[in-house]
Structures are given as structure tokens and as C-alpha cells.
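FIELD: query
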Amino acid sequence: MRENNHFFDAYIRMADAIYGVFNVNCEIVIHDITDVESSLIYLKGDVTGRSLGAPTTEFILKELKKKPEDIKDFNGIITNTTRGKIIKTSIVFIRNLSGEVIGFLGINLDITEMNRLHQVLGEMILPETNNSDQQFDESYATHIDEVFDQITKSTIVELGIDIDNLKRKDRIKFVRHLESKGMFLIQGSTDRIAELIGVSKQTIYNSLEEK
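FIELD: result
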């Protein structure tokens, strides 16, 4: 039984109200991030293919590394999913009485087809313009293992490193990048990272502490 259920009651009512207006191509989610591996506790609609008990996302893990006062809501950001969908998303963080972030409400609108139509119309009647909306990639995983894999793979590509032949400086950079993305909020991640790069758990800790 989760301890913070009463904090989510008003957000559940809000989720139902929002879904009642935007039910086509829309999904409303509520996550309790006191358990990031199984945080999805309420779901209306189906855009990302997830079900109750799904983990939180890579984007949220990274946000949780910030100080509570620095974590801000997001309105109308664009996410590109690993399943090829384009989703317009708003995120409202849920806090307890101490101001700590304990969850979030997410509104996901599938705009894939609308975006294709917009591109066609734009090519026909409008000059090319830059889209200023904030965009990021998201896997919307159904299991925490997918989140782990997505973060590690994207970090390897981002750093341009050879995971099978890591030099000390690259190992330190890799581990610290993972930490900055909230990887160590996932239970057992230290063991898995150590196994992935062929070092001991203590070496992972040392990599985080070295100057």
C-alpha cells in the first residue's frame, strides 16, 4: 500500500475531467514516483501503450535529480517516442505538504497524424519555419529494464565511447552522466552498470566520488 494515496485524489478527479474533453488520441496518467520502477497508478486512454504498474520515464528520472524547488511543471512539450509517435505533453508535479515531489500528472496527446497533415499543408502554402517547441525523445517504457537500456544506450551514443574498451576517464564520464540522468534512482542499477562495463560495484562508487 502506498503511503501518499490521499495526495492523488484531486488529481484523479482532474484526470477524469480532462479525459472527458480530449478522449480522442489522448491519455492521462498519474505517477507515484516514490516507487520509480512501478510508478504508474492511474491511467485513462491509450497513447503510449503502457498499463498500470509501468515505470516512470527517463525524462522524469532526470528531473528528480534536481532540488525540489527547481523542479517545474512542463506545458505543451513535444516528445518523440521509440514507437514512432509524436506526442504533445504537459506535466504537473504533485507535492506533499513538505514540498517534496511525490508524483506527477501527465497529459499525452498523440499529434502524429495532425503533424503529418500540418507538414503537407505547410509545403503547399507556407514557407519553412522553425518549430520553437521544446522537444525530447522518450521511450514510455512498460518495464524498468527498458528505461535502464534506453538511458545506457543513449549515453553511450551521446559520449561516443566504446563500452567494451573503456579508459578510466571515459568510465568516470559515463558513470557520472548516468548519475545526472537519475539512473541510480533505479533499484539495483549500480550492480547492472558494474556488470555492463566489467568493473566492481566499488569502482562505480569511486567513479562518482573522484574529482
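FIELD: remark
DSSP finds seven helices and six strands in the chain.
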